[in-house]
Each structure stands twice: as structure tokens, then as C-alpha cells.
Amino acid sequence: IAPSSSPSSSSSPSSPSSPSTTIETCRGSLEGYPVSGSSVLGKYSQAAIAVENIDCSRIGRQILERNGTAVDAIIAAAICNGVMNAHSMGIGGGCVMVIYSKYD
After folding, report:
1. Three-state DSSP class for residue 88
2. One domain, residues 56 and 11
3. What one-character DSSP code corresponds to residue 84?
């Protein structure tokens, strides 16, 4: 479980990076942008967390590994993100969650 990556300001879709660092299976707005991390295109059967800071992603993962819920994990990751990236978090900040329960 790793945070999503933003395209770097020096890259543009018209000048893609080498195939080893480019999203190959995604089309559209991300095509041609370099990607850092090895799990960006991972397929997750249980859960995934995407936040700006890798340490915050790890905190969310630890909550899930300790049998916390998806909501517990995102709250922990969001609190961490508020500390680590105070410039982009605060009152009025946002959060997007997609939660599926096969039992509901």
C-alpha cells in the first residue's frame, strides 16, 4: 500500500519517460507521466490507501493490519497527513472514500 504519485512539474504528457517509469496500463490524464514507487499499479484484494505522504500511508496500513476498519485507517492517515503536510490540509479539507461491503 503506497501513496499515489503526482506528475512532476518537469514532465509533460508529450514527452514520456522510459517505459520502466511510465504508467503502461493507465490511459488518459496519467499517460506518459513518470511514476515513483513499485505498487502504483498494484491490484489489491483487501484494501488500498493513497495519501500524499508515504509515512501516513504506512500508518493507515498498520491500522488495517490491526483489524481496524477502512474508516479508522483513513482517519488515522488523514490526521498524519495534516501534521506532515500542514500546508495542504486544514479546516475545510477534503477526503474521498470508496467503501464496499459485500455484506450490506
Report:
1. helix
2. no
3. H
